[in-house]
Amino acid sequence: MFHSKAFILSLAMLFPVFPAAAKPVEAPIPKLVSQDGRHALLVDGAPFLVLGAQVNNSSAWPTMMYKVWPAIQAIHANTVEMPIYWEQFEPKPGAFDYSVVDDLVGQCRKKNVRLILLWFATWKNGSPHYLPLWMKQDPATYPRMLGQNGRPVDSASPFSPNTLAAERRAFAALMRHLKKIDPQRTVIMVQVENEPGTWGAIRDHSPAAQKAFDELVPPEVLIAMGKPPRNPAAGWKQAFGKEADEFFHAWAVARFIGEVAAAGKAEYPLPLFVNAALRDPLAPGPPGSYESGGPTDNVLPIWKAAAPAIDILAPDIYMNEHPKVMKILELYGRADNPLLIPEIANAPEYARYFFPALGHQAIGFAPFGIDYTGFENAPLGAPKINEEAIRPFALNYELVAPMMRELAQLSFDGKLKAVAEKPGEARQIIDLGVWKAEVIYGVGQFGFADKAAGNPAPIGRALVADLGNHTFLVTGLHCRVELQVSGQAAGKQREYLRVEEGAFENGKFKVVRFWNGDQTDWGLNFTSAPQVLRVTMGTLTGPKGEQ
Ligand code: DGJ
């Protein structure tokens, strides 16, 4: 039977046999931008805060996701960090298995969270344990490092052209694939390796490494470390003395990873970062007492010079002393390095550091080991991962998630300040120019604060953002915030002209009520309830404190 073309077309419209799948809208590629030494991560074209959570090392398998999602939901993360294992990804040389990455991306989309992939490859905590089996079984082709005594070390040689070529090919394949499958930009960043470097030897002593060590230091490394670039031309020992071995290894590892990153970025230019196993930022021991070769604070300029395709050098925080954490934030938040905390211990007392991280313009934060697979990494983290352990971190994200975009913008504009409680210090000051905020810990909601002694455990945190015109966004947990006149007008009696509790909705602050009376007379008290205030200040002698 013959049918006219129009008839067939109209049938096809009524009964589409193969309905065309709706093509996902192509979102802008996530990117980092900088202004006046500050940074923002743009996702969907606007500043974004990674309210993250990282799963345990062996949890990023489709079969394990049912134990991951309940924890990710409990913590209210907007981003999950999950490894991709080279050993799974390239089971045979040059044959790539995309099934796991496809599944993870698909699941994240369904759960409406973003994904940061962690490429576990030549270095995972310094070791080559994630190399594909065919590489591990062929150490002659893919060699380990040699220690000073000539014995193999459990770390890959950064001077192996074969390992480098293999990893470049694999990482490029991963990034090419992401570009193809992810126009929605579910994946927003990729970590290259995991805590690269070496434990148990300061540098490689293989013949290739030794040859490079005996050559002159590349000029870009000398410049980065503040040495004259050419005159006198210097060898590593001459230029860096006791630190020569360590600096050399940092350069070797960074150069290797920089090449891997460049190969991936050429396929798909997502922001890339490398995470660091830190050395003690206040009292570092000698080289060799911490992981050598990774982006520790003393070699950040070497990494920047040797691995320009890496956008961020990011600290993993597993030290719980307040002064050390503050120092780490300061060391890694630099004009040439956006602050990102891709791992922090999941013990409850670490949750409060989310606030000073934001105060140091962090673009993201992620406690480690957030899933219900039953693995606990105490004593680094909590003894048991369950909803109760996750709660202190969930409080942060519950509070911040509704205004994440606004805070990211305020941070980028240099308007956001925040603190966390320090044991033994019941009061902290946030300098706001004409105003200051006194943050007080360990007082009830009613009455004077003269007896403030700090919380029984240091769990307090506070954040103040300057909205202009003597108006501030104020929030916190387990603390009291008192705004006072500062600077030249100090001593004048302040007045809370208006204190509004509310929440951001589509970029506008929607007021739910005013605070006044007991709720403001003693200061602005924050408990574990997620409450956000917009506060307009004045003084008794005139409006707005400017007289
Ligand atoms: C830091 C590493 O980066 C993580 O992968 C993990 O090994 C933790 N240490 C400890 O559980």
Topology, element by element:
Blueprint: H1 5-14, E1 31-35, E2 38-43, E3 46-48, E4 50-54, H2 65-75, E5 79-85, H3 86-89, H4 99-111, E6 114-124, H5 133-136, E7 144-146, E8 152-156, H6 161-181, E9 187-194, H7 207-214, H8 219-224, H9 236-240, H10 244-267, E10 272-277, H11 300-306, E11 312-317, H12 322-332, E12 340-344, H13 354-359, E13 364-367, H14 387-400, H15 404-412, E14 416-420, E15 427-432, E16 435-440, E17 461-468, E18 471-477, E19 479-485, E20 494-505, E21 508-514, H16 518-521, E22 524-526, E23 532-539
Parallel strand pairs: 4-5, 4-13, 5-6, 6-9, 9-10, 10-11, 11-12, 12-13
Antiparallel strand pairs: 1-2, 2-3, 7-8, 14-17, 15-16, 16-19, 17-18, 18-23, 19-22, 20-21, 20-23
Helix pairs in contact: 6-10, 10-11
The protein binds (2R,3S,4R,5S)-2-(hydroxymethyl)piperidine-3,4,5-triol.
